[in-house]
Amino acid sequence: MRSASFRVRWSRSWPATSKTCSWCSGLPPSRAPPPRAGSPDLYRQSDNDPASVQSKPTNLFLFIRGRFSVVKRCDHRGTKRTVAVKQVNKKLMRRDRVTQELNLLQRLQHPCIVSLMDTYETPSSYALVLEMADQGRLLDYIVSWGNLTEEKVACYLRNVLEALHYLHNCRIVHLDVKPENLLVAHTASGQPTVKLIDFGDAVQLNSAHYVHPLLGSPEFASPELVLGEPVSLTSDLWSLGVVTYVLLSGASPFLDESAEETCLNICRLDFSFPRDYFQGVSQAARDFVCLLLRTDPGRRPPAGLCLQEPWLQAGLGDGRARAEGCLDTSRLISFIDRRKHQTDARPIGGVRSFIQSRLQPRISHLHDIHSCTPLHTSAPISVHYQGGSFGLVEELGAGAGEGLGEDEGLGEGVLETVCFSL
Questions:
Q1: Domain coordinates in residue numbering, the chain
Q2: Contact criterion met (CB below 8 Å) for 85 and 71
Q3: pTM of the full structure
């Protein structure tokens, strides 16, 4: 079999006038080495046959199926190195979309981002040879190992934030941060490192008016993505807020019976912290979720500032301690199973008219009201929303969010914990 013709030249990755990026290994991107020439016959499928691993739950990550591609564990015939080969179906994704992903991956080098090693083409697919994350998807890893604590959750989130901080300093927005795109690899010392994958939706923001299409389930999509408004770097931070909620509770904060209702919940900021799901979760952890889940993109903190949050730090200097003890991961099993069988990849832009018809004009006032305590501000305040006006009710203590029911959120006649900067 002859060498692959599917090759993206490095000189096309960056404009000739691009400047050195201090976050990209300190070298001008044009000087970074391109992937070497690849060919399908250099790789063979690993001895771990996907058909044989179905009975081994801890090894399900050896065969991963996405919306437009499958990822297989393979061995390089020469070096015997184990790699992950992402095979993109040519019938489902255009060549220019794959080329865009390659252009981005070739420029990225970070320990919390899976690196591109090679590419090749077959008659039916484009193949990306990627670094192998030997522990598989994050949620599978958590369920397999158990003993999940807030400290571990904070460690995983720091890895993701470091990756986003790196990307955002290069003006790249990922736009598909979700549990399936977070893999785990063990370092030489045996410590887990979370790595961000799948840059099929990622773009470099060269203007302030890029509108991204919304496909499939909107569970982790930001309000601006749902409404067809211009996205920003902080669109990724919203998605990470939803991921954090899932890690802490095993439940999805905005999920409803239909994509339309889910999108409506997102735009209304309709979520809460049910007592049964957040038993033993600290107020600091809940505050971090609320810090990211803000409808106004400009009010979400950037990734670099999130990394300074006391809850994410190894040593907490202001007394906002993490909860001790293990978190309940039993709901993660059903969450993983539901997501595994969720194959809907249809465009859902049509739901926007439904959302606009359901959203009342007064909901726009919610852009200035945010759940829980923002970064380094005052204690929460209880506000009653009724008939288009907000009335101050009473000050609440640190455990203000614990008493909300599963169906309670921001809506007419509902008591919600919010905060004003004083």
A1: 10-130, 138-367
A2: yes
A3: 0.72
